[in-house]
Amino acid sequence: MRRALVLLGGLPLIGGCSLVRAEGPVPPAPPTIAVSPAFDTDQARPDRGLVVKASGGKLGKVDAYAGAVAIPGRYDSTGTVWRSSWTLPPGVEHTVTATAAGPQGGPTTLAMGRFRTRAAQRTFKVASVSPLPGETVGVGTPIIVTFDNPIRHKAAVERAMEVRSTKPVEGAWRWTSDTEAVYRTRHYWPARQNVSFTAHLSGVRAAPGVYGTADHALTFTIGRRQTSSVDTVTHQMVVRRDGAIVQTMAISAGMATTREYTTTSGIHLTMEKGDPVRMISPGRRKGDPGFYDLLIDHAVRISNSGEYVHAKNNVWAQGRVNVSHGCVNARPDQAAWFYDNSLRGDPVTIVGTDRVLEWNNGWGYWQLPWDKWVQGSALYDPRPSDVWVATKPPPHALP
User: Fold this and answer.
1) Which end of the chain is less congested by CB atoms within 10 angstroms, N or C?
2) Where are the active-site residues found (predicted)?
3) Over the stretch 94-114, which tens digit does the pLDDT of each residue have?
4) Which of 94, 216, 268, 310 is catalytic?
């Protein structure tokens, strides 16, 4: 069995058999170092991380490795406790070397040892993330993370997901299902900056016996600030870039003869685009009244209920009357311009109809006010009056 090695410095050496009485003050005892998990443990829980504590002095240098990979960590304000920043990879041998010094130049202590984390019985990982790595997106963009297995311990997983941006923002996660979490900022992202997302999942316990075995990281860019406003009463669409109007478009919205054919009002986000997109009337078969099966040019999706901003040659209606099946129709050349100049996550705000966009219809996340959004976080705490929620991982990811 491996044995931990603890060396105590500054201790006097005493030889012979006779009793010797020391003259003068008794030297201070050297500090002690406690490591959790304990040295020689071979089934340490990865989700509890690594903690090194000093008693009777302050910690000096702490070096910790999972295999050959350094474990990041930080000291507390007293300098007596060091914690790993995140959980530990499962099924891996870890080595720790730590020193501690007594007060006012007193004796020092060196502790060295090893332990092994338990292997994962089952694993989970990130299945997909939006935005894509390196993608340039609009200022309303959410971060959507999908996992390959249901997450039972959502707070543990949420603590492990870190978002950093060049220009600091306030944001929070909301769980939309057991396998999906969405990060939204309180206000739109400041334009023209870089954002990094890291899921520190290695060692995170998502459910009994289910651990993450690998981290997941990517970076993306927030582009220019482009927002669009659509008024279905005046039949006009105005596109602004960095506050300046760059396009004004006459449009025709949903005819509103049924709920299905009514354009939704609210804050939409551009989600994807296609040229062309095949559009088929929902719930109708060929030969039924109102059936259509068309290829539509320069189509930019703004919801999951079939709404797009797209090209249509019904110029006679644009700017005058709403005749579409729920989409926003624009003149072909202007629709092409909007298609070419849109990024995923650009806000499109529509007003003037009696059908409200649901917050979970596509990327309708901005439909929820902030105080409602944060209630979907696993870290939400309703007790403080200011509705506290952890908007970024704490200094360490331990319980």
Assistant:
1) N
2) 310, 327
3) 999 999 999 877 789 999 999
4) 310
